[in-house]
Design brief:
The protein has 119 residues and is mostly beta strands. It is 0% helix and 52% strand. The chain is built from no helices and 11 strands. The strands form 2 sheets. Strands 2, 4, 5, 6, 9, 10 and 11 form a 7-stranded mixed β-sheet that branches. It has a 4-stranded antiparallel β-sheet with strand order 1-3-8-7, with no helix packed on it. A hairpin with a 6-residue loop joins strand 4 and strand 5.
Length: 119
Amino acid sequence: QVQLVESGGGLVQPGGSLRLSCVASGIIFSDNTMGWYRQAPGKERELVASITDAYIINYADSVKGRFTISRDNAKSTVSLQMYSLKPEDTAVYYCNARRQPPRLQTVSWGQGIQVTVSS
């Protein structure tokens, strides 16, 4: 039984801040690359940020300098701290866990959580 549960979404004004969290169960958390994706209406799902099992971090160009991803293996949690939010950040945000060979290959997704940036 694999489960990824997101929390922390909601409505915020432009320029505001929000922190998303994702708690994982049913996986060996420390073996997984963790990521945040988002999908806006009428658009493709896109990678926002990721952090590997070796703590290597990547960000989409659109969020560099504004968002910070982190992980806490002891709590099986990955977080996304978002600053200086813009209307174009409005989307459903999804938590993702991925494991690659030589480990058994697996992919898991959360249900998604709404982030709305509006006046």
